[in-house]
Structures are given as structure tokens and as C-alpha cells.
Amino acid sequence: MNALEIQNLTKSYPGFCLDNLSLTLPSGCILGLIGENGAGKSTTIKLILDMLHRDSGTVTILGKDNRENLRLTKEDVGVVLDEVGIPECLTAVQVGKIMALTFRQWDQGQYEGYLESLSIPEKKPFKEFSRGMKMKLGIAIAMSHHPKLLILDEATSGLDPVVRDEVVEMFRDFTREENHSILISSHIVSDLEKLCDYIAFLHKGKLLLYEEKDRLLEEYGLLLCTREQLAQLPEGAVKSQKASPYGVEALVLRAAVPEGGHVVPISIEELFIFMVKEAK
Q: Model's pTM, two decimal places?
């Protein structure tokens, strides 16, 4: 069973349209949703959670339509949104007591363990938390009721590099169980490159690319060459290009470049930038 299936999902606003989006997140995997601000990442996540009314399309979470048996589905889904919605007067200890009455599978021991490992103050009011501290508390809550699917919108935003690395490792540990999966959006592409099995590129509401991360890195590369050398490549080999003082950098299909071409590995971030420039 797939953890998440999105088919032909559409949502229009004045000046923006999430256009016919289709994605699948296999069980046991991590899918990274990459895009600039305004690309449609948060809209997609809110549609998955049925926080917005869709114009068309379907969303299936853990084998169920996301608009049916919503209470049962949410027991199995841990959510961290860009803004962690906790009343400002509450402390982490008080939040734990409320969540114990909210989720049937709430694990107070696990929650307290996350408070300690993430250095979250137990008795400070939420209004006094930094943005990074708020995100850490949101992550602790999302992971403490034994979810099968985590849906994370910019969950590593505001965290310092050391804590980000710890949180990424927590997410890796979570998906070591084969029925655990994660959908995560982030503008910190390096986190997603370390973490994800699948990558989806969104640009202005359209899906540019959806593929296994390792296959992307095997399929695409950067070719450093002159304009003359670029012109000699087979048709279809070059997907995008940019000039530099030292020649041309081209996004290419590795298999289409003749032997001897100076093709170097490309990062997911570089690949996304090339894809967006081509789309423009």
C-alpha cells in the first residue's frame, strides 16, 4: 500500500493555480517537495490535510480517501506546519497533557524523551520560544503519537545546522520501519538531498519533475565545455544551460554525452535551479 496517492489535484486562486498534480509516496519512503516561495508546496500540503477545498482530483492517505474517516486517518498522521499552532500561554508540559487527551496512541514517555533530546524547555510559555524552538516542539508532538505518516512543511526551518542534522537523523530512524513514510517540504534543499528517497520539483503550481533521488543523480550531470563543444552534442542531450566566463555549464543527460565529455555530478539543488530556469 502506498502511504500517499495524489491524482490530478487542482486548486485555483486569483493569480495562482496548482495544476493537475499527481504524486505517489510509497510506504517506507521519504518524498521531498521542493519549490520556490509561492510554488504551491503549502497549498499541496493543506489540500492533503483537507484544510482547503480542492477544485478537482483525489487524495488517498494510507489507503483511505482523505475526506472520509478523517478522525481515524489523523490518528496515523503526524503534522508539522510552517506555523506551529499552539496557544502562546501553554508550556511544553501542559501541551503534553492536552495531547494525551487528543491522541489515543499518545506516548508520554516518548514525548518527554524528545523534550530532553531536543533541549526543549518544559516550563517556558510557548510565546517565549524562538522559531526554531517552536518547530522542535511541533516535531516532538508529531512523532509522539506513533504516526505511520509524517507530513512536514518547512519543519527544519529556523533550526541551527547541528540541530537540523539531529532532526534529519530522527526522520531517518522513523522510516526504518517499513510502514512509516514522510512527506517533507523545505527550501533547505541540502536537507532533502540527504534525507529523501523521492524528489518532486514544483514551480508556479506545476510539477516539473518527480523521480527517485538516486535515479535523478544518475541520469543528470553538469557538462563544462565551450559553446562549440555544446553544439556538437546529440539532439536532446542538453536540458538547460548557462554561460560563464569560463565557457558553458549545461545540464545534460549523462547517457547522451559521448565518452570523453567532462560531465561532473550535479546536486539536487543545482538540478532544481536549472529546471526552474528552463521552465521560465
A: 0.91
In this structure, of 67-76, 129-138, 157-166, the range with the lowest mean pLDDT score is 67-76
List, edge to edge, every strand of the sheet that includes 2-13: 16-26, 2-13, 56-61, 64-65
Q: What's the DSSP call for residue 256?
A: G
If 0-12 CB within 10 Å is exposed, 13-18 middle and 19+ buried, where does residue 65 land?
A: middle
Measured from the Cβ of residue 181, the count of other Cβ atoms closer than 10 Å reads 25
Q: What is the pLDDT of residues 261-279, one digit of tens each?
A: 788 999 999 999 888 887 7
Report how far apart the first and last C-alpha atoms of the chain are (Å, whole number).
36
Asked if 145 and 75 touch (Cβ cutoff 8 Å), the reply is yes
- Asked whether the beta carbons of 183 and 25 are under 8 A apart, the reply is yes
- Which residues are registered as beta bridge partners of 150? 78, 182
- CB count within 10 Å of CB 195 equals 20
Question: Cα separations (Å) of 113 from 137, 144, 247?
Answer: 12, 9, 54
CA atoms within 13 A on the CB side of 55: 14
Q: How far is CA 17 from CA 90, 103, 264, in A?
A: 37, 35, 36
